[in-house]
């Protein structure tokens, strides 16, 4: 493959020219991923993308946005993707992991297989990709890994049991990674948005059973999404974090909550009693 010029190559430089030059986005078909790739391309960042569906490549594959792999939850292929990138550009400055989908359902609605699929896609596939990218960033002496979770990564909600569990697990993984990698110049950051307008399509209903609670929560979630964040707001936050990492303005925080609703819920959980907060959650998802 033809190599992509990076005005200087790797050579162990820590953040060449103080900017991010190569970004890898995991789960480009998420609405946030499309907004982020557009912004990155506009800034001249060479962007590689992993998708999770048969999204037409014509809108993604340009001189700055390359779809490396459909990545349908396969255990293999991750190293091949990384090798493809490194054969062209020698480095990966930023890795952004996005949720592939949100499995809805109470614990009785979903099957064990659906629970495993959710963890495989949102947690284990993400961990495999991180494992493949970390040695690259260590060699560079610089990098940033941004794991985008959700408000549901900070607190549980009814009838999104599988999704919230996978987001809680990814948050725990991220906290551990931050300690493990900070001495190598690699920052690990969590971005925690509320409901995003473009993400209605990532909701997945159970295959076999849908309880009354799930039906009520599903309607409540659709309402939250329709009145939720624009994906651009989350993408802007991610770009700012990456820019700060490479301009050395400030080391990023562990967590960035995005959106008024997410921040209000986070503050409410800290200030309310457990009974008060449980009632707020029930109201928020349409159970009262």
Describe this structure in words.
This protein has 288 residues and is an alpha/beta fold. The protein has one domain (16-284): NAD(P)-binding Rossmann-like Domain (Rossmann fold, 3-Layer(aba) Sandwich). 45% of the residues lie in helices and 14% in strands. It has 8 helices and 9 strands. It has helices spanning 31-42, 78-89, 112-140, 161-181, 212-226, 231-247, 260-271, 274-284; strands at 22-26, 46-50, 65-69, 94-97, 102-103, 143-148, 186-193, 203-204, 255-258. Strands 3-2-1-4-6-7-9 form a 7-stranded parallel sheet, with helices on both faces. A two-stranded parallel ribbon has the order 5-8. Residues 1-16 and 53-61 have low confidence and may be disordered.
Distance between the termini: 58 Å
Note the total helix count. Answer: 8
Radius of gyration: 19 Å
Number of domains: 1
As for the CATH topology, it is Rossmann fold
* Element order: H for helix, E for strand: EHEEHEEHEHEEHHEHH
Number of strands: 9
**CATH level-1 class:** Alpha Beta
The CATH superfamily title: NAD(P)-binding Rossmann-like Domain
Counting helices, strands and paired strands, the structural category is: alpha/beta
Mean pLDDT: 86
Give a topology summary.
Blueprint: E1 22-26, H1 31-42, E2 46-50, E3 65-69, H2 78-89, E4 94-97, E5 102-103, H3 112-140, E6 143-148, H4 161-181, E7 186-193, E8 203-204, H5 212-226, H6 231-247, E9 255-258, H7 260-271, H8 274-284
Parallel strand pairs: 1-2, 1-4, 2-3, 4-6, 5-8, 6-7, 7-9
Task: Based on the model shown, name its key terms.
single chain, 288 residues, alpha/beta, Rossmann fold, 7-stranded parallel β-sheet, two-stranded parallel sheet, 8 helices
């Amino acid at each position: 493959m033809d190599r992509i010029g990076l005005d200087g190559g790797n050579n162990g430089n820590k953040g060449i020219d103080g900017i991010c030059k190569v970004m890898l986005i995991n789960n480009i078909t998420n609405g946030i991923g499309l907004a982020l790739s557009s912004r990155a391309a506009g800034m001249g960042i060479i962007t590689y993308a992993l998708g999770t569906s048969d999204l037409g490549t014509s809108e993604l594959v340009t001189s700055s946005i390359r779809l490396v792999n459909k990545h349908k939850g396969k255990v293999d292929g991750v190293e091949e993707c990384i090798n493809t990138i490194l054969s062209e550009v020698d480095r990966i400055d930023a890795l952004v992991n996005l949720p592939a989908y949100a499995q809805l359902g109470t614990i009785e609605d979903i099957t064990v297989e659906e629970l495993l699929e959710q963890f495989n896609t949102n947690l284990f596939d993400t961990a495999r990709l991180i494992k493949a990218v970390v040695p690259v960033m260590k060699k560079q002496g610089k990098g940033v890994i941004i794991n985008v979770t959700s408000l549901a990564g900070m607190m549980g909600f009814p009838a999104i049991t599988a999704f919230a569990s996978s987001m809680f697990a990814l948050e725990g993984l991220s906290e551990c990674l931050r300690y493990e990698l900070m001495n190598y110049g690699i920052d690990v950051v969590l971005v925690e948005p509320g409901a995003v307008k473009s993400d209605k399509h990532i909701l997945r209903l159970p295959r076999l059973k849908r309880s009354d609670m799930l039906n009520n929560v599903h309607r409540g979630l659709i309402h939250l999404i329709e009145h939720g964040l624009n994906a651009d707001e989350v993408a802007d936050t991610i770009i700012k974090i990456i820019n700060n990492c490479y301009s050395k303005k400030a080391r990023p925080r562990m967590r960035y909550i995005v959106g008024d609703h997410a921040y209000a819920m986070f503050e409410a959980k800290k200030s309310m009693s457990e009974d008060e907060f449980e009632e707020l959650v029930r109201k928020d998802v349409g159970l009262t």
